[in-house]
Write a structure and sequence with these properties.
- 31% of the residues lie in helices and 18% in strands.
- The chain has 138 residues and is an alpha+beta fold.
- Strands 1-2-3-5-4 form a 5-stranded antiparallel beta sheet, with helices on one face.
- The radius of gyration is 17 Å and the shape is globular.
- The protein starts with a helix and ends with a helix.
Length: 138
């Protein structure tokens, strides 16, 4: 196995597991933003969200939802940040969702990347059209 997350799933690498079933495995991130930062990944190897079979998406995200609630309760957090990278900034090429406990004034400032605006409504409409058109592409 070349995938460290597959090795963790199989028990070949240690991890502080917080949840597992036939669909997903969740464990503490080794480099957390805050204590309680958990990674949730599908048991079956899928590199990105788009590689997950359509019938796996709902069950997988039901587990993400359960883990999110447990992280918030377990860490006494006011809320959470839930995110996944697809390829870019994906440190391990195995789909994983970050669940990070959050509290007001915890020091995490918005997103981790700079945010911009569309130049005008025309650019926004053109961009929306490109995304809408992509739904019809296999």
């Amino acid at each position: 196995m070349d995938c460290n997350f597959c090795l963790i799933v199989a028990g070949g690498l240690p991890a502080h597991r917080v949840f597992e079933d036939g669909t997903a495995v969740a464990f503490l991130d080794r480099r957390p933003l805050f204590p309680g930062h958990v990674l949730v990944l599908p048991r079956r190897h899928a590199e990105t969200l788009t590689d997950l079979a359509p019938d796996e998406v709902g069950p997988f995200f039901a587990r993400v939802q359960r883990v999110t609630a447990a992280v918030e309760r377990g860490m006494g957090a006011a809320g959470s940040f839930v995110a996944a990278n697809n390829r870019v900034s994906q440190s391990v090429p195995h789909l994983h969702v970050h669940v990070v406990p959050r509290n007001p004034k915890d020091g995490l400032r918005g997103f981790f990347w700079p945010r911009t605006r569309y130049a005008d409504e025309e650019q926004a409409a053109e961009t929306a059209g490109r995304v809408r058109a992509a739904f019809d592409v296999p």
